[in-house]
Amino acid sequence: MSDPDLDELRSELAEFAKPQKSIKRTAKEERIISGFEEIQRFVDEHGRPTAHGEERDIFERLYAVRLDRIREQAECRELVEELDHQGLLGDQPIEVVADDIDDEALLAELGAESETSDLTQLKHVRSTADRKAAEEIADRKKCEDFEKFKPLFERLRDDLDKGRRETRPVTKDSGFVKADINVGQFFVLGGQIAYVASVGERIKAPNGDYDARLRVIYDNETESDLLQRSLQRALYKDEAGRRVTEADAGPLFSGVAGEDDEQSGTIYVLRSKSDHPTISANRDLIHKIGVTGGDVKKRIANAKNDATYLLADVEVVATYELYNINRTKLEKLIHKFFDTARLDIEIKDRFGNPVSPREWFIVPLFVIDEMVDKLMEGALDQCQFDPTSVAIRVR
């Protein structure tokens, strides 16, 4: 073979060996693709396209507006066309069906206003890198006992609609990074409402921090089993990630005293970390309800040595500040109201003596919340707790 032939061969081989150029996308294109993929996930999970209308979930309405934007803008259609395996774009651009509320107003309701109405600049759309950080929470399965949690989500939506709760950004500079995620908390993650149903035993991570396995229930009737720190990281990475505040139970329990009010104390709800078989089997339902005039954390600091707390550590799952109310009378009133749900348990104290703590009740947290609402409305004396249906009913 002549040298010119060898040179030509080398040239061809060199050209053949060149790596295929990877497609680099701008941040703007990443946001458009990410937003479209979130719409696709909704369709996969619900088996239908997104739709407008006040009766729809706020996130579905947001996705519907976003899909309209993508359909009407040629550059957006071209960018996601190859991804559209569900036929969401249609053959031709369609006439946009306006919702009675646009995406700016929807975002405002979520407390996540964007700086511009341009689809390509929406802050709540995650980048590819952010999505990878959230992959560890994506392994979800159907929640077989979702009916047990459904009332919690319904009550939450009602609280949000009526302003009793609000959503706030999850940022590292907000102090959330140092806070533990506790049972009963709600978050907005990946466009869905997430409820922390249980927190497992604390474990020590390789970096020296403590972690725990969670059971998280989502409002699309799925659940996931992930670590506490994994959920925190996912919330930080999701620019639309939100935490839901505790319910505002009105002026008596708002935590903000009036000009002439005097603080009287706190209603607190605790959950035990005891390994007692009865407690372990019903941990999410068994709560200690009390009223104190001091700091709750100081009060429970020595819980594992106190038979009143079942000789085990406890976690605070809810508190309600109160004003101008007699603490002793209020505590007796609450305990009497839930008397039919009082936990009947006997343990041995440090000296081997039998003790039967009387402030523990088998009642879900959402029922306790409802009891506080009735108390705030002055209507608790007109109600009674039905242990059979696990509900508060008017007499």
* Number of self-contained structural domains: 3
Mean pLDDT: 76
Give the H and E element order.
HHHHHHEHEEEEEHEEHEHEHEEEHEE
Biggest sheet, spatial arrangement of strands: 1-6-5-4-3-7-2
* Number of β-strand runs: 15
Percent range of helical residues: 25-40%
**Largest pleated sheet:** 7 strands, antiparallel
Molecular structure report:
The protein is of the alpha+beta class and 395 residues long. The chain folds into 3 domains: 27-110, no CATH class; 139-244, no CATH class; 263-394, no CATH class. It is 33% helix and 21% strand. It is built from 12 helices and 15 strands. A hairpin with a 3-residue loop joins strand 5 (210-218) and strand 6. Helix 2 packs across helix 3 and helix 3 (58-72) runs antiparallel to helix 5. It starts with a helix and ends with a strand.
